Amino acid sequence: MRISKLIFRLWIGSVFFLMMTGCDHIHTNMKETYAYTFRLGESHPSSHPTAQADVEFARRVEEETGGRIKIIVYFDQELGTEPEVIEQVRFGAIDFTRVSIANLVETVPDLYVLQLPYLYEDRDHMWRVLESDIGDGLLEGVGDYGFIGLTWFDAGSRSFYTRDKPIEKLEDLQGLSIRMMENSLMREMSKAMGFTGVLLPYGEIYPLIQQGALHGAENNFSSYLTQSHYQVAPFFSMDEHLRIPEILIGSKIALSNISQEDWAIIRKVARETTVYQKQLWSEMEEKAKERLIEEGVQIIELKDRSAFVQAVQPVYDKYEEQYGELIRRIKAE
User: How is 130-155 classified by DSSP, letter by letter?
Assistant: First the structure.
């Protein structure tokens, strides 16, 4: 069964590759100054900070290669969902993509450690890690799975928000039903912390909280605002249990013919684009927070997270053999 599935995936990948390289050849002939025309898949709308960073990356690459390389950005899942695009990038049907590592860990398990709860002290700590030898090593490691790791992007932190009362201490979570991201690690985290983690599609959160079937959910300020969840869950407790970065990757297959000179430019531009994306993200987050305060949301900044951190120790114990050394390096950064 596994062999049949692998053959099917390889066949699908080859079909996509032939189709897309044919399309790129047409694009190249339409504008002869481009030696290469590539596609970048993005799930966010064009107004999102990450999507704007994609556009800046594409613009700078074209500019600094003297027009040899054109990267076309496709927004709003036009090329597929993140898991679908990851698969296509792996087989060479799509050239670049920006994805959450939460969707990439199924293919690149080495990145799983970056999803652990309360892994970082704060945002600065996360970026010290990602911009150190640790982050560089993880970027290089995705090459073992058919990708080229280019740079990291910010996706903020995720915190709890609730319907009836704020979460100010660990005991406040006991017995609550909280919607979590749909993966097994979130289930382990909720069990360790004493609440029921409900894994369900994002679109179902609002009505279930409104009806009282859910006590709350968790996400960043921006999503909490844009999805109007603050209307039914007005208590936002900044425990920042997760900081899951995003990653810009390329396809080893599709990009195999690029010269070393152009690769140097692409890698440099990608790293510089991270600075731009981080600034855009910070501005968006600050505006969202200000708007939420105007809307009457009660924002609770936790002064002591030690009980929360201690509660998830069983999760760390489970992954000690696999990630213990790396976790200690991250904590010490």
Answer: HTSHHHHHHHHHGGGGTEEEEEEE--
Structural fold of domain 2-155+244-286: D-Maltodextrin-Binding Protein; domain 2 (3.40.190)
Locate tokens 């114990």: which residue? 317
Contacts of 123 (CB under 8 A, 6+ apart): 154, 157, 243
CATH class of the region 158-243+287-332: alpha beta
Q: For residues 96 and 43, give the distance between their C-alpha atoms in angstroms, rounded to a whole number.
A: 12
Separation CA 15–CA 8 (nearest Å):
11
> What does the pLDDT profile of the chain (333 residues) look like in tens digits?
434 444 444 444 444 444 444 444 334 334 456 789 999 999 999 999 999 999 999 999 999 999 999 999 999 999 999 999 999 999 999 999 999 999 999 999 999 999 999 999 999 999 999 999 999 999 999 999 999 999 999 999 999 999 999 999 999 999 999 999 878 888 999 999 999 999 888 889 999 999 999 999 999 999 999 999 999 999 999 999 999 999 999 999 999 999 999 999 999 999 999 999 999 999 999 999 999 999 999 999 998 999 999 999 999 999 999 999 999 999 999
Which residues contact residue 221 at a Cβ distance below 8 angstroms, ignoring those fewer than 6 apart? 156, 236, 285, 288, 289, 292
Q: Read out DSSP for 168-205?
A: -SGGGGTT-EEEE-SSHHHHHHHHHHTSEEEE--GGGH
Query: Do 158-243+287-332 and 2-155+244-286 fall under one CATH topology?
Result: yes
The half-sphere exposure of 228 on its side-chain side, counting CA atoms within 13 A, is 6
Q: How far is CA 232 from CA 209, 225, 295, in A?
A: 6, 11, 12
Number of Cβ within a 10 Å radius of residue 104: 26
The structure's pTM equals: 0.88
Q: Using CA atoms, how far apart are residues 55 and 270, in angstroms rounded to an integer?
A: 11
What are the domain boundaries of the chain? 2-155+244-286, 158-243+287-332
